[in-house]
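#onboarding

Welcome to the new folks! Below is a worked example of what a typical request in this channel looks like: someone posts a single protein sequence, and someone else replies with the predicted structure as tokens. Don't worry about understanding the tokens yet, we'll cover that in week two.

Example request:
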Amino acid sequence: MPAPLLRSPATRHGAAFAFALAACIASAAGAQPTDADFIAARDAYRAGDSARLERVAPRLKDHLLEPYVAYWQLKLKLDDADPAAVRSFLDRYADLPLADRLRSDWLKSLGKRGAWALFAAEYPKHGTEDVELACYAAQFESQPGNEGHNAAVDVRRYWFSGQEQPQSCQPLFAAMRAQGTLTSRDIWARFRLAHEAGNFRLAARIASELSPAERPSPRDIERIDRGARAALAKADFRFSSPAGRELALYALDRVATTDAMAAHDAWVKWRARLPDTDRIYGNLLVAYRAARQLLPDANTWYRDTDGAALTEPQHAWRARAALRAGAWADLARAIDAMPPGEAQEPAWRYWRARSLAVSGQNEDATRIFGGLATEHHFYGFLAAEALGASVMPLSEPLPPDPAALAAFGARDAVKRVVKLSALDLRPEAQREWVGVVRGLDDEGLLLAAAYAQRNRLYDRSINTADRTQRRHDFGLRYPTPYQTEIESAARQNGLDAALVYGLVRQESRFVSDIVSAAGAVGLMQLMPQTARWVARQTGRASLTTPGLDDAELNIELGARYLRYVLDKLDGLPVLGAAAYNAGLGRAQAWRASVPLEGAIYVETIPFNETRDYAKKVLANAMFYQAQLGLRYVALKDRLGVVAPRGGAAGIDIGAAPPDAVLPADPSDTPR
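Example response:
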């Protein structure tokens, strides 16, 4: 799914001016509350101006979105809010998502202030998992006399995380250490989790929480942080002590995160000095990092990890390393070793079937392929093609019923969704929509999706239609708005229209005025610097970021960029999709030194976001070719065979645009 979306600055400012003008006219006429009043309230809230909000709020009485104004008023003064006012809001708007948000915010405020009586009364009504609140609940339980209020909060499970935990958990962790319920083994376990996650500063702080006799010297950790490669090569660690061995493994992981080959070369010279369990763990660190870096030796190195406790990502990359190496027997063993839930994911069911087919177990392979072929996703197409079938998705639309659509649209919650979407509050609209469609059967979901599509809420329509279990309408799942613009741009650039539709659906869900958290704009989510580069190639002297809101221009530039990317990468859609998301240089670097089946290339993309993105774009294209009545092109042919790096078309980096249209999240990269 695309990142959280916002309207562009130009759209916001233009709307604000228009609504402000309308407000003056409405005020002069003594009109009912207007959307302009609401925009003024929203802007006051966003500016944190509670005084201005208080002046505007009375004008919003009986407005459809009045609950949001009341919420903003309470939110800006929550630490000093009258408990009766908060409870009144929670009771009055209990069926709105705002109630859950306010309850969560208020509980955190109460916990931070230690207002435990109020906290205890409201916490049982909070239904969602929230680590910060759970730790406040545990703090409440620890107060003298509160033993009867036990909420059975398992704080220990929050300790075992490689991520920083909320401040509300820290007093509990300190108490557990003081009481001895957090042992040195537990502390070292979290130290490992932190450096495995790349959170090296957190790891250093966790190590400082050991007892003085077990604690590594801060100077030793600092020495590794300053020069991990030198420390690893020198191997000047006290291997006789747990702390010395943990520091050796810490240095190993620091180097392996960026250069697993160098880490392995140093590691093999002294790993025999460690006990078996530590040596196997070190082997796992190197093998996992090597797999993420697509090193050919990763599969061989994974063979030295027998007996290690693998996380789900480490299991997955064990399988991907085997795939990349063409080691089908190792792949089968890797999938067999996965936890049952992970092994049943569509990817690993498909690759398990492929490994069975290679080993001659065709009956078992066919059974797995047959099950997958009934499912509507990337692996469903691949599995059907493995059986020699062509997939033609069949829709069972819900006949339009004007009365049912009108009744659905008359609901206050639905009207709020439409209004919020129009007034630059898309995240709020999405939360409301979740409540609207919760618990609906297939017919209800299709009705909701049809209503959303008719109101140009394409993102809500697609996501809702995607949820049906037995009755499917692929026209709602794969709509074709902007058909003239998309098909014209595809023709002009010699592109497969199904691929362009598939990319737009994945990038923006056909919402034209959105801006991602990374700054990508519009239907094809163009980064402004990339759009300007493409515009210069077409002879445009200048291009402003707000101009990318225009659907026709955005599609024109996005299609030109996609054509450029494909021309640089052998014309393969799988490489084009990877490059569109993560950049030309990365898509090129992910090639192997030998020809690689396209399905294996995409399965072994190191970025989680890009791997998922490329699969979905290509699967979308398969659905769109059916939707548009185009000639059937098998997914296997769209994936093709990815040529080795040396045999690929060269990329003139100097003449290329910025490296990514939508940069991958740095937290998702192999550190």
